[in-house]
Inverse folding.
């Protein structure tokens, strides 16, 4: 067991490790340091203990952002995955060129940078001029104010969100579907299982590792939702979250505290609170999976 | 300790590896609003720069345009890392925050060192806004605005409104709005969405002297009764508005396509409307915002400012800032954009004074309320603005009666300031 | 009566089954086409807004199809001529290419080790990198910015590129792929006396070509769509990326109307769209791979 035996291994990971340490670990450490300080970047940081964490947790905006986030996640994650799953089944039921065609078309929105998707939809939703209201108008529905009616804003966001992400999840699920051995379906068909039962008793269980990935990933990105609501509401660092903060989300609140009110300490504390939540959710997902798999 | 050692090590390593990427000392970064860095405005700015560069060999000025938000965030982040642009613009209302982060230098000594003749060119009140206490001056006031009301004459005429005399009072204005709505068009944008439009409406019905914050006692100056009257206007306007905020591009499009009758906003919107008038036959004009009583007028006013960052380039940066705000440049600038500015001497230039938009702006400023006073006294927290727009929206949504809303709002504002 | 009733039920179930099959088939097409329209229409609409005469009310021209080629071309020409769009294109492409090269090289070296060999500290190191996938970038963005500023890298290509090179996602993806490389080949090469780096260079890399190409494409998409980082780290107009130029048009106070904004947006969509049309199979496979092997 001589230590030089391992040297080539370390040499190969060195570039990655150095960059990772400098541009990920170091910022985390210094951010953690700032989260206990009152700091506006101009004057020297002043130690304040847990005050930053306290002021974030007790603030009205935090409560509102968390409520919005909860309502958003409860709808967007299951619905998004259901849509993606439906699309995957749909594409899977086609063969040859048509399967490829529909897969590509459904995937197209994923190609757009998020900032562009949001800008386009902002205009699609515009009252009167926007396409969505125009189409509704054909059916005699009065103009709906998607981006300013506090009762509808969340749904408008979720629609954009699913439009952007469904193709991405569909592709992953589709690959999972292809990995399911066909003879399982043959056997089920011989047993007279209906199409729905085939999905329920073969597709979903066989797909569960992939579904797990998609759901976990969906949760993590939903918890960090930022650009789309920011751009849909035309937010700025002095006013964000849309009408009556109906689309205020934690990351937006955090950015506002950093660049709007210049409380970098409070903003970094906010970031760590969020990170803790994300890690908790992920850990819970993994625990759930471990608990489910033995059966 | 570990963090700083690590930082030093990385710094040393990178310097030896790549060489310092230091910027030449005489290159000045100059940030302006994005609309000043487009088209003809950019051409004129570039001309100012080249004149200045010829007079000061060895100096290079790099102009870059950005939206309001990016200006503020870039300056704040820049201050944090010692890389604030040398000369930059922003709004007066953001001033206190920029002082807090150390982005704005005190230019009082440089200002006093200028000839009396230069200092006398500026509007005295505007200079006062930049000088919160003796021997302190944080900015040179630049372009300014008093809000005006754009009227789409096609929409008004179709609603059977006589456009010859603009509405003088809130009551007349409101009657016209109702008629516009009855004709199937939108009367106004949603005035509750943006702090500035709430302020603008307050200026119609409220007590203009009491619009502000007392930073010493951390209390709002706003009183319940005038605020209740303001909220009542939002409640009245709720069924008449377009649902887009006054800053939305969609609002401009509604106006241009004859779907919207009134748009109360600053002079920066005029170029879009002027172009639309040429291209698609938009018929519009601009008048003073109606007031609570005849002869008075609402709307807000404020200045954009030119600031200079502290640091090694301060002297030359000041020289450039003084150059672009000098009468000759300000007169050319005003002529090109038809924008009112703080250089009173330039405003007296007969060619400038005759421009209709400037004429109207000068008049509007006399009545308008300062958008976020007092300037440079303290940073207005975000929650103050949010509380204001939230309550305006909630009242418009019918969740509060005007009186209850005003009471609750004032409590919220004070709670926010005391945090 | 009962017999005929029975036979008729039989017949109905039979025909119902056939009808079922047909409705299912038709329904399938209807749904697929509807979804396709929803997926594509916003992009199509954006093109129509650009290629339409401005100022014509929606009631007259609902922008369902392009109406004026000339108007669209003149808008595109104006934007390319009057703004620094072309330079922004060039910078964004350089930014993307350098990032791709760096991510591939650095990531594949590390992935080679993590996937195929055992050495002390491996699990901890790899675990740490995987954990970083869960940390929201916004936590690190401000301290990273300060670090970059201190290094004097603001407004420079290295400032844009270097902080993004240690891509945890890239490493994860390559490790997933390299785990399936044939260990026998590597052992054989080692027995032949090939050095560690040579094994990586001549065996592991060529075998991982597929995953590398996929990662390159995904990295391109990411860098092209990155908005926040260039915005704060490269605030000088000489180093504006496409995202920033688009941002200028979208700023509320810019004197722009919807058609001009959409023109700027359209120009920004073109490269990723072309990229997608060329490489769509790779992109789709890459995303599928990162998900199914997790």
């Amino acid at each position: 067991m001589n230590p030089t035996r391992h040297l080539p291994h370390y040499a190969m990971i060195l570039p990655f490790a150095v960059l990772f340490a400098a541009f990920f670990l170091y910022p985390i450490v210094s951010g953690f340091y700032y989260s206990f300080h009152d700091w506006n970047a101009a004057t020297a940081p002043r130690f304040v203990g847990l005050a930053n964490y306290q002021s974030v947790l007790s603030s009205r905006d935090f409560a509102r952002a968390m409520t919005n986030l909860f309502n958003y996640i409860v709808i967007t994650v299951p619905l998004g995955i259901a849509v993606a799953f439906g699309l995957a089944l749909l594409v899977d039921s086609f063969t040859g060129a048509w399967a490829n065609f529909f897969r590509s078309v459904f995937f197209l929105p994923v190609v757009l940078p998020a900032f562009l998707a949001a800008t386009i939809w902002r205009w699609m939703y515009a009252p009167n001029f926007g396409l969505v209201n125009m189409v509704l108008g054909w059916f005699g529905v009065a103009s709906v104010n998607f981006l300013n009616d506090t009762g509808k804003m969340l749904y408008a966001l979720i629609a954009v969100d699913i439009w952007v992400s469904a193709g991405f999840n569909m592709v992953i699920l589709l690959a999972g579907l292809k990995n399911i051995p066909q003879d399982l379906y043959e056997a089920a068909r011989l047993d007279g299982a209906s199409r729905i039962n085939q999905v329920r008793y073969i597709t979903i269980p066989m797909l569960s590792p992939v579904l797990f990935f998609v759901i976990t990933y969906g949760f993590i990105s939903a918890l960090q939702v930022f650009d789309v609501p920011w751009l849909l509401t035309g937010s700025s660092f002095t006013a964000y979250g849309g009408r009556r903060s109906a689309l205020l989300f934690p990351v937006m609140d955090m950015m506002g505290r950093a660049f709007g009110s210049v409380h970098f300490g409070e903003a970094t504390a906010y970031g760590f609170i969020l990170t803790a939540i994300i890690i908790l959710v992920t850990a819970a997902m993994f625990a759930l999976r471990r608990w489910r798999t033995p059966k | 300790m570990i963090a700083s050692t690590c930082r030093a090590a990385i710094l040393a390593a990178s310097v030896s590896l790549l060489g310092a990427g230091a910027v030449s000392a005489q290159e000045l970064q100059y940030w302006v609003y994005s609309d000043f860095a487009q088209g003809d405005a950019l051409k004129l700015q570039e001309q100012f720069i080249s004149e200045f560069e010829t007079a000061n060999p060895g100096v290079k000025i790099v102009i870059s345009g950005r939206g309001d938000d990016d200006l503020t965030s870039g300056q704040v982040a820049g201050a944090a890392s010692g890389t604030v642009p040398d000369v930059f613009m922003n709004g007066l209302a953001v001033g206190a925050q920029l002082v807090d982060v150390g982005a704005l230098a005190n230019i009082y000594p440089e200002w006093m060192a200028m000839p009396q003749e230069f200092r006398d060119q500026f509007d005295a009140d505007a200079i006062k806004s930049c000088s919160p206490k003796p021997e302190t001056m944080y900015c040179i006031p630049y372009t300014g605005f008093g809000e005006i009301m754009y009227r789409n004459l096609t929409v008004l005429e179709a609603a059977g409104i006589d456009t010859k005399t603009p509405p003088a009072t809130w009551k007349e204005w409101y009657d016209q709005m109702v008629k516009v709505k009855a004709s199937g068009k939108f009367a106004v944008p949603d005035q509750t969405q943006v702090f500035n439009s709430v302020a603008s409406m307050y200026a119609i019905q409220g007590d203009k002297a009491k619009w502000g914050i007392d930073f010493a006692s951390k209390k709002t100056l706003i009183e319940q009764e005038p605020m209740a009257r303001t909220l009542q206007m939002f409640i009245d306007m709720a069924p008449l508005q377009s649902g887009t905020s006054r800053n939305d591009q969609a609002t401009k499009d509604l106006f241009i396509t004859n779907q919207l009758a009134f748009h109360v906003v600053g002079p920066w919107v005029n170029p879009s409307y002027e172009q639309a008038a040429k291209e698609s036959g938009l018929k519009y004009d601009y008048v003073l915002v109606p007031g609570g009583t005849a002869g008075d007028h609402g709307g807000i006013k404020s200045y954009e400012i030119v600031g200079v960052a502290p640091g090694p380039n301060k002297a030359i940066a000041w020289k450039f800032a003084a150059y672009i705000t000098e009468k000759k440049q300000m007169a050319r600038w005003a002529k090109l954009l038809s924008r009112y500015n703080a250089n009173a001497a330039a405003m007296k230039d007969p060619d400038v004074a005759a421009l209709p938009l400037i004429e109207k702006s000068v008049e509007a400023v006399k009545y308008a309320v300062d958008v976020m006073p007092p300037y440079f006294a303290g940073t207005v927290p975000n929650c103050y603005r949010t509380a204001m727009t939230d309550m305006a929206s909630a009242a418009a949504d019918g969740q509060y009666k005007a009186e209850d809303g005003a009471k609750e709002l004032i409590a919220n504002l004070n709670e926010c300031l005391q945090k | 009566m009962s017999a005929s009733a029975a036979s008729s039920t039989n017949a109905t179930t039979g025909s119902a089954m056939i009808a079922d099959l047909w409705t299912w088939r038709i329904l399938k097409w209807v749904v697929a086409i509807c979804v396709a329209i929803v997926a594509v229409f916003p992009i199509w609409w954006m093109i129509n807004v650009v290629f339409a005469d401005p100022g014509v009310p929606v009631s007259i021209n609902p922008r369902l199809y392009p109406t004026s080629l000339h108007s669209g071309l003149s808008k595109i020409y104006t934007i390319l001529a009057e703004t620094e769009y072309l330079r922004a294109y060039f910078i964004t492409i350089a930014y993307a290419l350098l990032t791709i090269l760096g991510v591939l090289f650095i990531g594949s070296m590390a992935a080679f080790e993590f996937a195929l060999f055992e050495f002390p500290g491996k699990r901890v190191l790899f675990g740490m990198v995987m954990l970083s996938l869960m940390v929201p970038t916004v936590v690190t963005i401000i301290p990273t910015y300060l670090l970059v500023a201190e290094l004097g890298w603001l407004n420079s290509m290295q400032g844009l590129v270097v902080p993004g090179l240690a891509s945890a996602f890239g490493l994860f993806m390559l490790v997933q792929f390299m785990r399936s490389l044939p260990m026998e080949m590597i052992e054989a090469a080692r027995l032949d006396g090939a050095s560690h780096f040579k094994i990586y260079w001549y065996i592991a890399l060529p075998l991982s070509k597929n995953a590398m190409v996929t990662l390159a494409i995904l990295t391109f998409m990411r860098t092209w769509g990155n908005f926040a980082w260039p915005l704060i780290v490269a605030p000088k107009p000489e180093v504006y990326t496409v995202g920033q130029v688009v941002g200028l048009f979208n700023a509320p106070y810019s004197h722009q109307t919807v058609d001009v904004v959409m023109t700027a947006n359209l120009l920004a969509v073109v490269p990723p769209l072309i990229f997608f049309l060329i490489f769509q199979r790779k992109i789709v496979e890459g995303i599928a791979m990162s998900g199914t092997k997790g």
The first helix of chain A runs from residue 7 to 34. The CA atoms of residues 123 and 129 of chain A lie 8 Å apart. Chain A touches chain C through 89 residues (CB under 8 Å).
